[in-house]
Amino acid sequence: MSENRWLTGDEQRAWRAYIAMEHVLGRHLHQHMQREFELSDSDFEILVTLSEADGARMRAVELGEVTQWEKSRLSHHLSRMATRGLVSREPAEGRYPSIVLTDAGRAALAACAPANAARVRELFIDVIGPGRLELLREIADDVVAAVEHHQRTNCTLRP
Amino acid sequence: MSENRWLTGDEQRAWRAYIAMEHVLGRHLHQHMQREFELSDSDFEILVTLSEADGARMRAVELGEVTQWEKSRLSHHLSRMATRGLVSREPAEGRYPSIVLTDAGRAALAACAPANAARVRELFIDVIGPGRLELLREIADDVVAAVEHHQRTNCTLRP
Hints:
homodimer, about 70% helix, 3-stranded antiparallel beta sheet, mainly alpha, 6 helices
């Protein structure tokens, strides 16, 4: 393995700082949402995704494409959310039912979204400031594009 | 809930781009590590943390502080890693054993670390470039400091 595969000190500091931001901020937001609203980050991701879909409904396979969760994780999680009344399964054309956001799911999202947005503003948006925020968006878009290009062109690990 | 708690269009685009980077890059790195080296991201985090500790050993409570995992998750995960021979529990002063990196754990880390570092370089470091990387490090440090300050001063949700 050639040495230039390793990261320099500066590169490693930047990578570790990014990972620390991801862990520390994510955990803080998730803990608040769980304890104040009894929603996990997985629940929240499904609720947001459904709420933005046409008719607040999607096929499970479409939800899988958007969230990129593994099939078994998605299936188990949707069952638990259905038991709690946050989503329901409804017959649709073809073999597979649609996953539909229920009134209770919409209410749960409406209850927690403002508090979550306020925390994102206080601890991320306002800390970073408008100029750096625009640059962070460019960085993030570039990284996502690079990973997706890599997956399209030379990766055999598609789910 | 007052309107200024919500994010503007630009703010929301930046936040969503950041979340997309976190998901897309993290999933890509974790999938490769799992399929090529049979290590989950949780395994990798424990192995790296232990490898950097004095004597490659830590108390479980110290591991909990560094990783910030919940106690039950940490305990179950360490048991599974011990079964696989990646770590071992050894008697130590006081009531609690130390968690020690085994030779097999060190070998597993040594086997996957270069490939992982090469992916981080290709899809993150080189895509971002040195100037933006330094700025991203500053952003990440500022966000981590803000969350930690918030937790110290007015948060009742400490684990």
